[in-house]
Amino acid sequence: MVKILSDSTCDLSQELTEQYDIQILPLHVLMGAEDYKDGVDIRPDEIFRWSDENKTTPKTAAPSIEDATEMIGRLLEGGNEVLCFSISETMSSSLNIMRLAIEDLEASDRAFAFDSKNLSTGIGLLVVEAACMAKEGLGAQEIIQKLEELRPLVRSSFVVDTLTYLHRGGRCSGVAALAGGMLKLHPKIVVVDGKMEVAKKYRGNLAKVVKLYVQDMEAELKTARPARVFITHSVGDARIVREVEEYLRSLGVFAEISETRAGGVVSSHCGPGTLGVLFIAEP
Which residues contact 270 (CB under 8 A, 6 or more apart)? Predict the structure, then answer.
């Protein structure tokens, strides 16, 4: 049997991880002298509060080698194979930690680390696909082969409400952040081959921006892989999220529309008011 493990940046809800039997290895969120485990003892709202009070962004760090080794070793028990997913290797050393843990366990023939080349539920889409294939009885190498075909088809993007957090994290200049705030600019961030890029800039209030952002993707959404789509966000206004869900449902494409909250790592860098629609395109 193949067991599925992902680092916490996949942003899958507890309901989904239980449904698909997915194990989560938390990254770390460092707030001053305090070290928290993402999704275990720290939540995004606490991160936002600390960040605003201290006018800085928390640092994030990969899982510890000890935690990775313990978790992978436990999943290997009983002759299982283990398939481990991480945030893009260009964004974190999480994948390398998994590789080192597998090496320490001398389990390279049964445990495998897979670079999602993505973040948030862009990872989650691949993780859920892998879990479904594992339930069907496919072996780890068979799953990896299919995932390598799916990986470039994952469409991950999101819009942010404020540039402040990107600026604090060194991903946006002070001038750009100031101008963005004055002009009410909201960048659309896309993930391309494991890296974040600005694809477009919207202007206006968040509700208007989110509506335009989703509508701009309509052609792609209508031809997407129909199994599932994610709405992943740190938006406090439930009405905005509901409008996106209703719009996606009106397309009549997706069998499953899942809403998840962005976890601590993504929230640390993007801030409140971030929303993304993530899906897999058809080849």
Answer: 158, 160, 165, 166, 189, 234, 262
